[in-house]
Specification:
Length: 490
């Protein structure tokens, strides 16, 4: 076992390293969890990234993890490792508040499938990560838990909606965090805070959650989620390294026939290919990149070329531009029935943000798109999925920005409808991907003027391992990015 001084700094080590050390009895889960809890106590009061942290429960779970090691039990890939879960995801015994005071009622009676998978993998759940109200902003502020800050620059967003997860990772509070993504909510926060985020193919990680209910004039009624939740939203991990993201994704992956789009079995092994081509899409002709964004792309191109990838530049890709436009039709029309609830229980920030977001969508699709337009949007989505898969085949992936801008200034979406349009235009790499359901990873590639700048790698459906390999090639050749205000980090 490690000395007391060494144990205090276990939070600096990766989940992959710590899981192996716990398994080999080189360190105890109790020491690992205590080190991260101390780090949470040190950094979270400033950042407000995690909520509902219960040290006694976490340490009790860690003691049980150590007992399982001592008994020679079969151990999962995350055995004894601290992980956070998001406030919009059911965890047994914790409130699924969505950051809304009126919804912070009774604790969940059961785990969402992705949380159950983390438990089965041996993870010690140490706290809940903050998010915006209803998880519908690229920021992480709500009336229940307050504002989460970015460890790199408090004036800029830590991302949303998994901003608490990304901020806590960058600060060293956990090595792995659970998140979800319907418009960049894993990938964008990871990029804002200089960590890794992977959005898996729709159906790979189960999105099943216990039934939710609402009181209506007809009585207590189960809430049925709209099509985009099933077709575009995913659960997935954020982590401090590509290897940890890979480990966590494998732990979360599993067949679950309760999920309407769940894959009934793990995908087959990928075919061997001699050389992977990476096609670079710097923009779609709607917005100009910040110079730092192009610099990060240049760095990633150099790293991938050095690693043996064939890299080519594309002059835009109309398919992605169309997918980004479709996202603003399908997502917001599916959310429209929720607006009365937002008006009733949501705070001023989420009401204002959604008002401007709907105005941005209306600038493309009109104030109230017709049912025919909506149906045609779903039909067109299917065509675009086929076309992109045919383009990528077995030996190609895409390299794009994360956003055309650097991390947004806090509350930029509240500045007015014109700024909302600018933001949606800048975020085309985030919105095009969920509109089609493909896997994508964001990985840091540069540090510019004190801020991390990441790139996105998009692969064919169920090619997560191949996309993670490319992200690993970028990470291996990029100096580790650490927020200077927090001192040494893992």
């Amino acid at each position: 076992m490690e000395s007391q001084n060494q144990a205090a700094h276990l939070w600096q080590r990766s989940a992959t390293d710590l899981a192996a050390a716990v398994r080999a009895r080189e360190v105890s889960s109790v020491d690992v969890v205590r080190s991260f809890l101390d780090r949470i106590e040190e950094t979270n009061p400033h950042l407000a990234a995690l909520v509902d942290v219960r040290p006694d429960e976490a340490l009790a779970d860690a003691r049980r993890a150590d007992e399982a090691v001592a008994a020679g039990a079969e151990l999962g890939p995350l055995h004894g490792i601290p992980v956070s879960t998001k406030i919009n995801t059911d965890q047994r015994g914790r409130v699924t508040s969505h950051g809304v005071p009126a919804l912070a009622g009774a604790p969940a009676e059961d785990d969402a499938a992705c949380v159950a998978a983390l438990r089965d993998a041996g993870a010690v759940l140490v706290g809940r990560s903050n998010a915006p109200a209803f998880s519908y902003r690229w920021f992480s502020t709500n009336d229940l838990h307050g504002r989460t800050l970015n460890p790199w620059d408090p004036a800029r967003t830590p991302g949303g909606s998994s901003g608490g997860a990304s901020s806590s990772l960058a600060a060293g509070m956990t090595p792995v965090a659970q998140g979800n993504d319907i418009g960049g909510s894993i990938r964008y926060p990871a990029a804002c805070c200089g960590v890794v985020g992977i959005r898996p193919t729709v159906g790979l990680v189960s999105g099943w959650m216990p039934p939710a209910y609402a009181d209506t004039p007809a009585g207590r009624t189960q809430i049925d989620f709209p099509p985009t939740v099933h077709a575009c939203a995913v659960e997935g991990p954020l982590a401090r390294t590509v290897a940890d993201a890979r480990l966590a994704l494998r732990a979360m992956t599993g067949p679950d026939l309760r999920d309407p789009v769940g894959v009934p079995a793990a995908p087959r092994a990928l075919p061997d290919v001699r050389r992977i081509t990476v096609s670079v899409v710097r923009g779609i002709g709607t917005v100009k990149n910040h110079p730092a964004v192009d610099r990060a792309l240049d760095e990633a191109v150099a790293h991938l070329t050095d690693a043996g990838y064939e890299v080519e530049e594309l002059d835009g890709l109309p398919l992605l531009a169309e997918a980004a436009r479709l996202w603003s039709l399908l997502i917001y029309e599916d959310f429209r029935p929720m607006l009365p609830l937002v008006e009733q229980v949501g705070g001023e920030d989420i009401r204002t943000s959604l008002k401007y977001s709907f105005a941005a969508a209306a600038s493309v699709w009109g104030e109230r798109p017709s049912l025919e337009t909506y149906i045609n949007g779903w039909a067109r989505r299917s065509t675009l999925i086929t076309r992109l898969q045919e383009m990528l085949g077995a030996d190609r992936m895409l390299l794009t920005p994360v956003s055309a801008e650097l991390p947004f200034e806090q509350d930029a979406d509240l500045a007015g409808p014109e700024r909302a349009v600018e933001m949606v235009d800048a975020m085309w790499p985030m919105t095009a991907v969920p509109a089609l359901g493909f896997p994508a990873v964001t990985v840091p590639a540069a540090l510019v003027d004190g801020l991390p700048v990441s790139v996105q790698l998009i692969g064919g459906r169920f090619t997560e391992e191949r996309v993670l390999d490319a992200a690993q090639a970028v990470e291996d050749r990029t100096p580790r990015l650490v927020p200077a205000s927090l001192g040494t980090s893992a």
